[in-house]
Design a protein that fits this description.
Elements: H1 3-8, E1 13-20, H2 24-35, E2 40-44, H3 61-68, H4 71-77, E3 79-81, E4 83-87, E5 95-98, E6 110-112, H5 115-128, E7 132-135, E8 137-144, E9 149-155, E10 160-170, H6 177-181, E11 185-187, E12 194-201, E13 214-219, E14 222-228, E15 233-240, H7 242-246, H8 252-261, H9 264-269, E16 274-275, E17 279-283, E18 288-290, E19 294-295, E20 298-300, H10 315-335, H11 340-362, H12 368-375, H13 383-391, H14 402-418, H15 420-433, E21 443-446
Parallel strand pairs: 1-2, 1-10, 2-7, 4-13, 10-20
Antiparallel strand pairs: 3-6, 4-5, 8-9, 9-10, 11-18, 12-15, 12-16, 12-17, 13-14, 14-15, 17-21, 19-20
Helix pairs in contact: 2-5, 2-10, 10-11, 13-14, 14-15
C-alpha cells in the first residue's frame, strides 16, 4: 500500500480553512480568520523557533503588528531601524537616508529582527486567536473538488493526517506547494540571483541612532546586506548573479570570506568580527513568480506566490499585507460565494502590484544611474520623498507618491541616455548575468571560523 493509499483510509478532520505554512503570511492569515470565529488549522513543517533569513522589516509593518496585537512583543526583540545606508566601492562617501524623509513622516522606523523570534511570535499569536496550530506537520498533497479540498499531511513521527477543508491557503513560502502542483510556478525572466550569508559577532556598526540602519554594499558581482540585530550579532549576506556562486571551487566559508574581501568597506567593518559557529548558508535561483494566485477554493500568499529580491526588505511586509487582503477574500468566498469571483480578480491585481512596483527599482539597483540617484539624492518634485515612501512600504495606502515616482523613472531614463555608453555596457552585462544556468542547490555549511 502506498503512502497515498494509506492516507486515503484515514478519516479526515473537518475545518473551514487549512493554512499551509507557519511563517508571517500563514500565521497572520490564520490569526485573522480565527478571530472571525472560523475553524482554522495552521500546519508548519518545522518547529518554532526555526531559522529563516529575511530579518529586515519596513515601517509599513508597524501598523500590521499593531492590528494583530503583537506590536510590543516585536518591539522587545527588535533593533530599531530608522533608515538605510548605501555604500559604493567606487565612491568615497556613503549615502544615509532616513524613512522620516518620506512623504508620510509617521512611517519613520521599523526593526531588524531575528526571524526565528518574529515568526514564533506570529505563530503563537495565531494559536491565542483560536487557530489549531500544528508543528512538525508537512502537507504532502491537496486535492480539490467542487465542495472543498482533501489535504493530506505527515507528522514528524510518521503519523498520517487528513483534513476536509472548505478553503486552502498556501503560505508555504519557497516550497510553493500549490504553485508547483498546479504547474503555475515560473522563473522570473527579468531577474536571477543567488545568495550566501551568515551571522557575525563584533561587527563594526554605525554610531548612535544609526546603529540599526540596514547597509547595502555594492560589489562587482551584486550587493551585500549588513543587518544589525538586537542581540549583538549582525547578519551579512551577498546577493549575487548565479554564475558567481557556480564558480565556487572551495569550501563555502572560505568562498564567503573571499567574496567579502571584494567589498573592502564591508571587510573593514568585519575586520574584528567572528563568523558565528563558522556557519554559512547558500541558496540559489530564488527569483520566481506564479501565473495566478487564486482559485475557487484556494489562495497563495507571500512567497508561495512570488519572490523577487531582498534588496528593499519587502518580503515580510508583502507576505503579511497579502494575508490581511487574503483574509477578506476567504471571508467573501465562504460567506458570500456569489461575490467571490470579483474578489479574486481584485486580489490577483493586488498581488501583482507590490512586486511590480518594487521590481522596477530592483532590476535597476545596480545600474550606474540608479547608484548615482541613491548616493547623491535630490528631491525635484518630491521624488526623493516618494522613493523613501516606497522603501518604507507605503504602496497600498493613499499617500500620493505615484506621480513623483513616474517623474523619478523619467529622470532615470533621461540620465541613462545622457550617459548612454555606460548604460549600454551595464545593460549588456546584466543581460549576460541573468542567463539561466540551471538549478543551484541551497546548503548550509559549517566550516572554519
Amino acid at each position: 500500500m502506498t503512502a497515498q493509499d494509506s492516507a486515503a483510509v484515514i478519516p479526515p478532520e473537518a475545518c473551514d480553512v487549512m493554512v499551509i505554512g507557519g511563517g508571517p503570511a500563514g500565521a497572520t492569515v490564520a490569526a485573522l480568520l480565527a478571530a472571525q470565529g472560523r475553524d482554522v488549522v495552521l500546519a508548519e513543517k518545522a518547529y518554532h523557533p526555526r531559522f529563516h533569513i529575511g530579518e529586515s522589516l519596513l515601517p509599513a509593518n508597524v501598523a500590521l503588528f499593531e492590528k494583530l496585537g503583537v506590536l510590543l512583543e516585536v518591539e522587545r526583540i527588535g533593533m530599531p531601524k530608522w533608515g538605510v545606508e548605501f555604500v559604493s566601492q567606487e565612491h568615497e562617501a556613503p549615502s544615509r537616508l532616513d524613512f522620516a524623509e518620506g512623504w508620510n513622516r509617521s512611517l519613520d522606523h521599523a526593526w531588524q529582527v531575528r526571524r526565528s523570534d518574529l515568526d514564533e511570535i506570529l505563530f503563537r499569536n495565531a494559536a491565542r486567536r483560536g487557530a489549531r496550530t500544528l508543528e512538525g506537520c508537512r502537507v504532502r498533497d491537496v486535492q480539490f473538488d467542487d465542495d472543498g479540498a482533501d489535504v493530506s499531511a505527515v507528522m514528524d513521527d510518521g503519523a498520517q493526517r487528513r483534513w476536509r477543508a472548505r478553503f486552502v491557503i498556501d503560505a508555504s513560502g519557497r516550497d510553493t506547494l500549490l504553485s508547483g502542483k498546479l504547474d503555475a510556478k515560473r522563473k522570473n525572466p527579468k531577474h536571477n540571483s543567488a545568495a550566501l550569508f551568515g551571522h557575525f559577532r563584533q561587527a563594526e556598526r554605525l554610531p548612535g541612532k544609526m546603529e540599526g540602519h540596514i547597509t547595502i554594499f555594492w560589489f562587482a558581482h551584486g550587493w551585500f546586506w549588513f543587518i544589525p540585530l538586537a542581540d549583538g550579532t549582525t547578519s551579512v549576506g551577498a546577493v549575487c548573479w548565479p554564475y558567481y556562486l557556480k564558480s565556487r571551487d572551495k569550501p563555502l566559508p572560505e568562498f564567503f570570506a573571499d567574496t567579502i574581501a571584494m567589498a573592502p568597506k564591508l571587510a573593514a567593518r568585519l575586520a574584528g568580527a567572528e563568523l558565528v559557529d563558522g556557519t554559512v548558508h547558500a541558496t540559489g535561483n530564488y527569483s520566481y513568480t506564479s501565473t495566478h494566485c487564486s482559485g475557487e477554493r484556494f489562495l497563495m500568499l507571500g512567497d508561495a506566490f512570488a519572490f523577487i529580491d531582498p534588496v528593499f526588505s519587502s518580503g515580510v511586509y508583502l507576505a503579511m499585507h497579502s494575508a490581511f487582503e487574503g483574509a477578506e477574500v476567504v471571508a467573501t468566498a465562504l460567506d458570500r460565494p456569489r461575490e467571490a469571483a470579483a474578489a479574486r480578480r481584485k486580489f490577483e491585481k493586488y498581488m501583482r502590484h507590490g512586486p511590480r512596483e518594487f521590481s522596477w527599482f530592483i532590476y535597476r539597483v545596480s545600474s550606474p544611474t540608479m547608484r548615482d540617484f541613491f548616493l547623491f539624492p535630490q528631491n525635484p518634485m518630491r521624488t526623493k520623498e516618494a522613493l523613501m515612501s516606497m522603501l518604507a512600504g507605503d504602496i497600498h495606502g493613499r499617500t500620493p507618491i505615484w506621480g513623483s515616482l513616474r517623474i523619478l523613472k523619467g529622470l532615470y531614463y533621461t540620465f541613462s541616455l545622457v550617459h548612454l555608453r555606460r548604460s549600454f555596457a551595464h545593460w549588456k552585462r546584466r543581460r549576460q548575468n541573468i542567463r539561466d544556468l540551471g538549478p543551484l542547490r541551497g546548503e548550509t555549511i559549517v566550516g572554519a571560523k
